[in-house]
Structures are given as structure tokens and as C-alpha cells.
Design brief:
The protein is α+β, with helices and mostly antiparallel strands and 231 residues long. The protein is built from 5 helices and 8 strands. Helix 4 packs across helix 5. It binds inosinic acid. The site of inosinic acid has 16 residues, from strand 4 and helix 3.
């Protein structure tokens, strides 16, 4: 088992934002403070970097190479986050953190939602998914004579699983809309087409990392988790 923290992790925390998402969990409140080490389920380097930036002082350990990726077979973000956190805990015996994120687009009835990573197919790239999203919206817009409600939101659910069965779940959400063309080179995934409502019209991909984290679903979920843990 890999015991050393990833040197890419451990950057300073960002200022807290006021609107954190709701949170709950079957486990007791953990007022004794955050566990010193947390193993991360994600193999997505973009996500891991964001989590590290937001979590600050917590020692985050990447998923050991010998632990296989868990198939996301749940039908909700919460189910998938719990599946991943529990599998990692079972494999490592260490507090394990997993997140699952979905982009919900109102004009698409909430799609791609829990299937956001695979929207354009099982091996879809970020660009493939963005292209499919824009193509779907363009089609609906032209059928509707140029009028389209482009409202959307990112939702993240984070699960932290401890030995002994305690589990804590936190979530974060950011409202916004899907713009017509990709803009910006920062971030990842659907960032170039998502404009948060509370921003100044920029997409997440046009923002500095700290600006994105202050508003983002993941930033909110992680800060909610830290509050819940008294960290
Ligand atoms: P996952 O299942 O949590 O890995 O996330 C599903 C997909 O949502 C990812 O493959 C990305 O395309 C997208 N995604 C997750 N988080 C973000 C984000 O912060 N910005 C943009 N897209 C994201």
C-alpha cells in the first residue's frame, strides 16, 4: 500500500463561501477533528488537484495502484460516491473519500446527470461530451424556434467512509447555464460551457482556480464536509 502523500497535494485552503450545500450522514458527527490521512478514490487528476487545493491541510493520499477502479453502477450520485468510498476503505483500511459529480441540464430533463462522464459513450473525452451537449441543445433550440431555457447545475456528492462503519456524506450544488460555444482553457470536463449564476458571465474555464472553487459544486461540498467534521 502506498503510504506517502502525493507531493502535488497540500496547497493552502481557499476562503470559505457562504452557500454550502446540504449534508447528512448515517454516521455520528465527528467533532474530534478531521482524520490525518484520507485516501482519495478518484483516478481523475483534474479532480484530485481540485480536492487537494480545497481541502488544504488534510493529507490526501492517491488511490494505491493495486486498488482497482470501482464501476459506477449506482443510479444516483450518492450511491456511486458511497460505492467508491466503501470499496476503497475495504481495500486500504484507511478513511476513504469519493465524490461523484453530475451536470443537470433542465432542457434535457436533468441529463447528463449521473452519466456525465459517459454522455457521448463509454470512452468519451471531455470534448466529445461537450460537443454532444451543445449539439443536443442546438437541436432542441432550433425545434423551439430559437428559444431555449439553458439553465443547468453541477451537483457533487462526497462520501467519506471510516473503519467501523461510520460514513459522512456532504453535497454541493451550483446553479448556472450552458453557453452557446466553449470558452476558456482552465478547468476540465464541462467547465468551458458552464456559466455560474453567481459569477460575472465567465465560464468556469475562464476563471482562476480560486474563483471556481469559491462558487463550485465541489468547493461547496468539500467545505460542507469540513464543517461537518469540525475541521
Ligand atoms: P465523475 O463521475 O464525478 O467523475 O464526473 C462525471 C463527469 O462530470 C466528469 O467526467 C467530467 O466530465 C464532469 N465533471 C465533474 N466535475 C466537473 C467540474 O468541476 N467541472 C466540469 N465538469 C466536471
Amino acid at each position: 500500500m502506498q503510504k506517502e502523500p502525493n507531493p502535488a497535494f497540500g496547497q493552502g485552503p481557499i476562503p470559505g463561501a457562504s452557500k454550502e450545500g446540504g449534508l447528512d450522514g448515517p454516521g455520528p458527527s465527528r467533532s474530534s477533528g478531521f482524520p490525518p490521512r484520507v485516501v482519495l478514490a478518484t483516478a481523475n487528476a483534474d479532480k484530485a488537484a481540485e480536492i487537494a487545493e480545497i481541502m488544504g491541510a488534510v493529507v490526501l493520499v492517491p488511490r494505491p495502484e493495486w486498488v482497482p477502479e470501482v464501476e459506477e453502477t449506482g443510479s444516483t450520485l450518492e450511491e456511486n460516491a458511497l460505492l467508491k468510498a466503501r470499496a476503497l476503505l475495504a481495500a486500504t483500511g484507511e478513511p476513504s473519500l469519493a465524490d461523484d459529480t453530475g451536470l443537470e441540464v433542465d432542457a434535457l430533463g436533468g441529463a447528463p446527470g449521473v452519466w456525465s462522464a459517459r454522455y457521448a459513450g463509454p470512452n468519451a473525452s471531455y470534448d466529445d461530451n461537450v460537443a454532444k451537449l451543445l449539439a443536443e441543445l442546438n437541436q432542441i433550440e432550433s425545434r423551439a424556434g430559437g428559444n431555449l431555457d439553458r439553465r443547468a447545475r453541477f451537483r457533487t456528492v462526497i462520501a467519506l467512509a471510516f473503519e467501523g462503519g461510520d460514513e459522512v456524506i456532504a453535497q454541493g450544488c451550483v446553479e448556472g447555464w450552458i453557453c452557446n460555444e466553449p470558452r476558456g482553457a482552465a478547468g476540465f470536463g464541462y467547465d468551458p460551457v458552464f456559466v455560474p449564476e453567481e459569477g460575472d458571465g465567465k465560464t468556469f474555464a475562464e476563471m482562476e482556480a480560486s474563483e471556481k472553487h469559491a462558487l463550485s459544486h465541489r468547493g461547496r461540498a468539500l467545505r460542507a464536509l469540513k464543517d461537518l467534521l469540525g475541521a
